[in-house]
UniProtKB/TrEMBL annotation:
Gene3D superfamilies registered for this protein in UniProt: MFS general substrate transporter like domains (1.20.1250.20)
Main subcellular location of this protein, as a coarse class: membrane
Identification of the protein by name: Major facilitator superfamily protein
Keyword Signal attached: no
Segment forming the signal sequence: none
PROSITE patterns in the record: MFS (PS50850)
Amino acid sequence: MKLLNYKEQPQWQKNVYALWIGNFATGAGSSMSLPFLPLFIATMGNFPKWELTLYAGLGYAATYLSQAIASPLWGKLADRTGRKPMLLRASIGMTITATLTGFSTSVWMLISLRFIQGMFSGYINNAFALIASEVPQKQSGKTMGTLTTGSVGGQLVGPIFGGFIAGIWGYRIPFYVFGGLMFLAALATYFGVKEDFTPIEKDSQQAKQSAFAGIKNLWIVWAMIISSMLIQAATNSINPILSLFVRELMHGTGNIAWVSGVIAALPGIATLATASRLGALGDRIGPRKVLVGGLILSAAMFFPMFLTTSVVVLGILRFIIGIADAALMPVTQTVTMLNTPPDAISRIFSYNQSAQAMGSVVGPLLASAVAGILDYRFVFLMTCILVLINLIVVLVAYRKDGMALIG
């Protein structure tokens, strides 16, 4: 088969290249400062442990809370103005807010800027929405998987690079680099993305009706939105206790920080290696089978984590979880796309983003409560239960809609 050079490729493929760069920059930038947020806050005052933990939690959650509130409003606007303006709004907005966060002189200034950043965020979700409106259906799964590798790859590189520069130049520098990366995303979007968009008139009946009005398989779409929330809750629930659990397994000896970093990175490595392949598999056998298989595999890995007493076994299970993750979020995006009319896709994807943001808030809060009341390992049992609930939601939705979707 003849390979087309860049100029001969269809515009949607060129858009994928530019948006991959934007997704990578967003993933790297947003993740490079989060691991060190409590340490940055600690430089702003002499806080007791409980107060430092509270401020770190607020700083982490503020972005996701405002994101959950603002996303539906941006999605509605995107259906009238196009997705490219929303991508530029997100990238330029985060360029400014991330850079200003590095200049924070008080903890409340930092939390406020993190909240404002969440209101302007949404680059990755809008990238998915734009490509979902253009990609041929037969290549949708592979393409969504490829876009996912951009953000996941960035999330792998971000903490490593951020830790390196923070250790040399201080905790403010990663925020400046985050701003620079988002400016790069803005340039890649402005020059590399072209959108053939027909706006919806503000006063038209189409604009006034619910985003869900034209969806045939409504149960399935709602199941994907709920799944996005539960996937994010399950994925992020481990973050607050992972290093503490690793320290317990290592009996407080050895290079705990380095081992914790490796254990944290293993799922992302597996997801990066398998996301596009599993997306292509979904194109061949149907996304339902890949999604259900990913949920079963995920639950099957979280339960042994509850029982494990070895950090090596934990690492192996975490790596396999990364393969399951590659079969989850990209596939939910694909299924949502296949069931949503083009004129409502930005609004539906914005609801999806709000659900993800809420999952990113609820998951760690639940995990902290479970770990505080019971023990670290019970967080894995809780996460297993979340995945099983997710599986039930998906199976019920397909049954209600008579498995109308292909696959």
